[in-house]
What we know:
Helices cover 36% and strands 32% of the residues of chain A. Chain A is of the alpha+beta class. Chain A has a 4-stranded antiparallel sheet, covered by helices on one side. In chain A, strand 2 and strand 3 (91-100) form a beta hairpin. Mean pLDDT of chain A is 75; it is low at 1-6 and 116-121. By secondary structure, chain B is α/β, with parallel strands linked by helices. In chain B, the strands form 6 sheets. Chain B has a 20-stranded mixed sheet that branches. Chain B has a 5-stranded antiparallel sheet with strand order 1-2-3-4-30, covered by helices on one side. In chain B, a hairpin with a 5-residue loop joins strand 1 and strand 2 (88-93). Chain B is elongated and about 120 Å long. Chain B starts with a helix and ends in a 7-residue tail after the last strand. The chains are: A alpha+beta (121), B alpha/beta (446). Chains A and B meet through helix 1, helix 2 and strand 4 of A and helix 1 of B.
Amino acid sequence: MRRSDxxxxxxxxxxxxALLIFVGILLPLLRFVGxxxxxxxxxxxxxxxxxxxxxxxxLYRNRMLPERQSQVCVxxxxxxxxFDSHTDSMMVDWTLSVNRQGKYLAGLHGLLYAxxxxxxx
Amino acid sequence: xKPNLSQNGYVLYLSLTLLVVILAYVGxxxxxxxxxxxxxxxxxNKLQASVLAYSGLNLAEAYTSGYEGHEPASxxxxxxxxxxxxxxxxxxxxxxxxxxxxxxxxxxxxDTSVVEGILGKSPPSFSWNAVTxxxxxxxxxxxxxxxxxxxxATTGGKxxxxxxxxxxxxxxxxxxxxxxDNVMETELSDAQxxxxxxxxxxxxxxxxxxxxxxxxxxxxxxxxxxxxxxETLTSPMSDFAGKSCYYRxxxxxxxxxxxxxxxxxxxxxxxxxxxxxxxFCSISALGSVIINGNSRVRGNIVxxxxxxxxxxxxxxxxxxxxxxxxxxxIGGSQDIVIQDNAAVTGTIATGDFxxxxxxxxxxxxxxxxxxxxxICPGAVxxxxxxxxxxxxxxxxxxxxxxxxxxxxxxVSVAHKDVSMMTIPFLTKTDGDLSYLTLNWKSxxxx
Lengths: 121, 446
């Protein structure tokens, strides 16, 4: 199909090629740019949820405090698990947070009654 | 030269279509991302709410365990602990009763988690964990802060919701449980009158404990009442052939005795000792009745003070245990107690004591079981399992000090076509948090 000098518009073939490029290449790339780049945040948050849930379950089930700092590696991504607590007699006021590359992702706060193992920390 | 209008229009159309496709695609992606974001936040908030609930329990447990050396009952009036991320834990104490109400509440985006219960002794005359089935047509009360999820059956009464109570089910009107307790009450009253008339009279026959009623001078067909002077029935095997007997003192049925067709009225107490076997007997006592472990009883037992079915004893079908209100307000507990491992097949009922006392009338201990029907205008404490129907003025469940007690959850009453109703009290586990589930599976035999 020849383009006429007087016809500056695209030919049908060009439009179809552009459509294929958009659908096949550009649209998938849109997931990783701009406002749609939240997927990693969501994933991080879900990982943080899983970590916090597991740690808090162990904490309440065993009445044992976790390490002050530990690392968890999920899909080649390292997450820092930080634990902070203040003990008042037998009550432990604790905070658990999950960071990735120094950036805060999520945290939990609660109280623990630990009459037996209160001196672990 | 004129441009090719038809080709340009077609290209324009395709370009617009391409634009719409791109916008739609981006919209879908953004929407799914937003849902994922909200979901991930929701999970975290829900977890924080759960942790707050655990924290509330831990805080209350600490105080009931003498936190910092304080006596909880005398130290705590009310304590409110506010969570840094929102949410509140409340502890409040009832004066001199030694119990603590704990309520943990966390409110987050799209998620509210409320956990509440009582630690320590349950308060007297307070809002029990009560699901009231109105057998007398009265209103059903969803007590303070109680949560009832499911249907409540009444016999015409309304469902009242008190402070903070939550009722998520439907009100179902059912036919009242029919128990002609007047028959039982009248029978005991007549027996009482008969005993009064007998006193000072010598025209009654006194038989030795070893005599069989069949061989007595009165004979089985005599209309004359027969009174046993002895307080013990020791014959290893006695068939009374349905003869009415009056015992003016206590009656003790000894070990391994086998008694059949006995119909007796006892002015005192009745003790059925280990391994005794009563078949088709009817015992009405103005005092208490104690059925010791490993006994086997088939028949009716009516008493006016208290009735204890000891562990491992069996009350077999068809049997009827009844606690009369004849001596109401005599002081002390007037209960029917089904002890651990005891099994009752039949009906257990109490008269209407016409008081508002929170004292339970029927206590079914753990591992005790009833298959049949329980009718109690007062309160029932069903720690064991009931297979059948339960009609009660109130259902009470309380545990020992320092044990967390939650409110009833997932309560449902279905009156459908099934003839048996199963009411197991289960302790389910939601994470580590135990809670009580009242699970009424099927319909009423009415």
